[in-house]
Amino acid sequence: MDSLDLVSPYLFSYKGRCFPVQELMKPKDLDALQHVDVRASDIYMITYPKSGSAWMQQILVKIVDAAHPDMEEEADNRARVPFLEGNTLDDFRRERPDPRLYATHLPPDMLPTGLKAKGVKVVYVMRNPKDVLVSLYHFSHSWKMLETPKSFEAFFQDFMDGKVYMGLWFDHVRAYQNEKDKMDVHYVKYEDMLKDLRGEVVKVCDFLGKDLTDEAIDHVVEMSTFKNMKTNPKANYKDLVEKQRYSSPTMRKGVAGDWKNFFTVAQNEYFDRVFEEKMSDLPLSFTWEINQ
Ligand SMILES: Nc1ncnc2c1ncn2[C@@H]1O[C@H](COP(=O)(O)OS(=O)(=O)O)[C@@H](OP(=O)(O)O)[C@H]1O
């Protein structure tokens, strides 16, 4: 194995971001990803972890199925929208019909260079970072590749210091905001999908140039609700629980505002201060809570 710059026994640092020591790619493979074959028809779904990746994977699969009924596949969403930093170097060698869908948590400077050169369409999903933190806290108990947090307090500080999977949330979101004019990117907010899933699906269809009937859009929406995804084995990653790679389902709560059950008043004030310092110059706002 390459010698890794360890941040902890579970994470190594590469180009300023943190990656799990086990299972995913090592620096040499991450570098190789920059040179994979990219097609103009590819569609990329990009997120910071726990921001709605599985949700958008499902939406994209269902949009593509509706727009290209001849190519509807039986595989699950992990195979239909593979994560670049998983084991996709092999995936680029296999035959796949266009449009190929890919997912990634990688920052812009680590993406395949062909994305920009070929004008590939990118859907970037963002979620309010307090709920991202809480979701990642739970995922860190679940995914065997991550260190089980010693306490919420310790995890909170690691998140604020970027000592978590994929590094600082603030850097990731900023980096993609800075790509606005350099990539063909459509931004989606998790909370907007909670408020009006159909409206956001329609915007994604428009961005991708997929002209779906109202009925087809209704079907995409129906198949992408939390309730339906939770019981859909192609969408819910439940096989990873069965294979004991996750100890609990990744479809956990699916709400906005769960952070209120975990943050202390002092943590919330500290978070707000850091958010203001790091993000206030960006034209970005988040919904912190939605009453269900
Ligand atoms: N359909 C739907 N509706 C609402 N919320 C949903 C949906 N699908 C997934 N989720 C929630 O998304 C969180 C997981 O994020 P990711 O899929 O990005 O995780 S990962 O980074 O790919 O591991 C995780 O959030 P938490 O429940 O807060 O942990 C999931 O429950």
* Spans of at least 5 consecutive residues with low confidence: none
- What strand line-up does the widest sheet have? 5-4-6-7
Helical amount:
40-55%
Mean pLDDT: 93
The bound ligands are:
3'-phosphate-adenosine-5'-phosphate sulfate
Radius of gyration: 18 Å
Count of alpha and pi helical runs = 14
Number of strands: 7
Separation of the first and last Cα atoms: 48 Å
Question: How would a crystallographer describe the biggest sheet?
Answer: 4 strands, parallel
- SSE ordering: EEEHEHHHEHEHHHEHHHHHH
Walk me through the topology.
Elements: E1 5-6, E2 11-14, E3 17-20, H1 27-33, E4 43-47, H2 53-67, H3 77-80, H4 88-91, E5 101-104, H5 114-117, E6 121-126, H6 129-142, H7 152-161, H8 169-177, E7 184-189, H9 190-195, H10 197-208, H11 214-223, H12 226-230, H13 238-242, H14 265-279
Parallel strand pairs: 4-5, 4-6, 6-7
Antiparallel strand pairs: 1-2, 2-3
Helix pairs in contact: 2-11, 10-11
This protein binds 3'-phosphate-adenosine-5'-phosphate sulfate (PPS).
Residues 47, 49-55, 131, 135, 138-139, 224-226, 229, 250-254, 258 line the site of 3'-phosphate-adenosine-5'-phosphate sulfate (PPS).
Description:
Residues 41-282 form the Sulfotransferase domain. Belongs to the sulfotransferase 1 family. One of its GO terms (biological process) is xenobiotic metabolic process. This is Sulfotransferase. It comes from Champsocephalus gunnari. A hairpin with a 4-residue loop joins β1 and β2. α2 packs antiparallel against α11 (214-223). The radius of gyration is 18 Å and the shape is globular. It starts with a strand and ends in a 13-residue tail after the last helix. A 4-stranded parallel β-sheet has the order 5-4-6-7. A 3-stranded antiparallel β-sheet has the order 1-2-3, with no helix packed on it. Helices cover 41% and strands 11% of the residues. With 292 residues, it is α/β, with parallel strands linked by helices. The model has no long low-confidence stretch (mean pLDDT 93). The chain contains 14 helices and 7 strands. The structure holds 3'-phosphate-adenosine-5'-phosphate sulfate.
